[in-house]
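During the first year of the project, the team set up a workflow for recording each protein of interest as an amino acid sequence followed immediately by a discrete structure-token representation. This format lets reviewers and collaborators read both layers of information side by side without switching files. As required by the reporting guidelines, we include two representative entries from the current panel. The first entry is reproduced here exactly as it appears in our internal archive.
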Amino acid sequence: MLSGFLSAFRTPDLRKKLLFTLGILAIYRLGVAIPTPGIDYANVQLCAGQTTTNTAFEVLNLFSGGALLQLSIFALGIMPYITASIMVQLLRVLIPRFEALNKEGQEGQAKLTQYTRYITVGFAVLQSASYITMARNDLFFPGCAVPIIPDDSWYTIAMMILTMTTGTVLIMWLGERITERGVGNGMSLLIFTSIAASFPGVGSAIWNSSNGLQNSIIVGIIVLIVIAAVVFVEQSQRRIPVQYAKRMVGRRMLGGSSTYIPIKINMAGIIPVIFASSLLMLPSVISQFAGNDPSDTIIWLRDNVADPAAPLNIALYILLIVFFAYFYTAITFNPNDVADNMKKYGGFIPGIRPGQPTADFLAYVLSRITAAGSLYLAAVALIPTITFIVLGLDTSIPFGGASILILVGVGLDTVKRIQSQLEQRHYEGFLK
């Protein structure tokens, strides 16, 4: 692996792309440390050291690289763009125009990307206004006596909303620049950087706990086992053989080849875990708005649903992951479309008739694989939490299976892209 990285830096074009990517990531981390105008940064640091933050905000803070609880210019992170991208994918099922654009090729994808940008700006405005309202009402740091926003005039609030929204647009632009001129998927690498930046804090919290050395060793071993399992499963796929019949096109004979349809065990990726985590954050946010005198219903939600260590929370987490795995897979992979395309070009699965029987067979295989993939996602997402419960660690520490899935998935994708570019540049043909 080390020789591969050295080879990448020895290649001039690839070295420029890697340095460009690292430079963009450095700019992103710099923006995380710049506070939004109107925020008293000293009071934010004081409140962060005195109070315990809600678990929901800790998770959001994780995906923003620590920028949310600092209320920096990049406080929203890349989450508005992710939410907009998921919404556009879901709208393809509801709006025929979006589905038609998706099938138009590069031009249609460009229009969908433009719609995603517009929706991202809308989400950024709403989320920035919500976070500023929460900060003004002491929901980020309950019980802190000093004000985070000393001047709450309309001009200051409007400037803060504009700054945070602009920060999200800048993050989106930086991610697109990495995708175009750097190495890897820009948005994924920004999320990777945000999560990786939280690891020193997580390691320090585990080390400072009771039996810190023992807990650190156990957590480290479990993390390595989970990483190995994630790499193995993410690389696994079910290959359905496809045979193309020979046919004459003019004077040429086409077809007669064999290939396969690769179906990954985890077709939905990290999306089911994100959806499930987002829904389970709602009880925590609701309990925050309830104030110091909550009702019996709010207390029950806080103790049984919002608490990550509660059995009901774990059960709901598993059920939501399984549901969203099936839901998202059904949206992204349509067996009827695949079967129609195969029939159009003379392809068939050996032993299966073309047309509807092929679609039924693909749906059957996909359903069984999704069952295994959803249970795998639930296991990976819960193993760190269960480990923290067994070791007696604070379950509010923002570290879980979702973080490992994102880190490993983005790391594998980036390494594959670097490897493919190395192979292109070092390929030797018959003539030297």
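The second entry, processed by the same pipeline in the following quarter, appears below.
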Amino acid sequence: MNLIPLSRAVSPGRPALERAVGALLCAGTAAVLLGGCGAPEARVDGARAAGERFERALASGDQESACGLLAPETRGQLEQDEGKACREALGAEELPTAGAVRTTEVHGRQAMLRLVGDTMFLSQFDGGWKVVAAGCTPQGEQQPYQCVLKGG
């Protein structure tokens, strides 16, 4: 097999070969970037499922189940702020009706779910994904989200 030096393969006299080499380099770079940076599908699915379970529990009035899906620090902060058990305190929160999940982004053990009417943040614990913050709205590109429910 005769190998052509890359400098000769992409010279001005070889436009078809130059496009082919360029396309192969772009495809290879994209594959490395997408494969190396993306979260495994199981983690994305796990975060999405936990967020959906939390929303279903809230929608059905099952605060006990919803409280079980909160991160420990978030649950503790809610109970401290309201001076009530989680079940009672969560029922008093004005969380938006979220609807279906539009996008899920997972970075390490952290996830952000953008739903039709809400944005929520989750963390992965030994026992699975837990809601860290919910009822979140963006405050601009350089500002943190403002959340109705969050940990300390």
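For the second entry, the following points were noted during internal review. The helical segments are 6-9, 15-37, 41-59, 63-68, 72-82, 86-92. The longest helix spans residues 15-37. Both points are flagged for discussion at the upcoming steering committee meeting.
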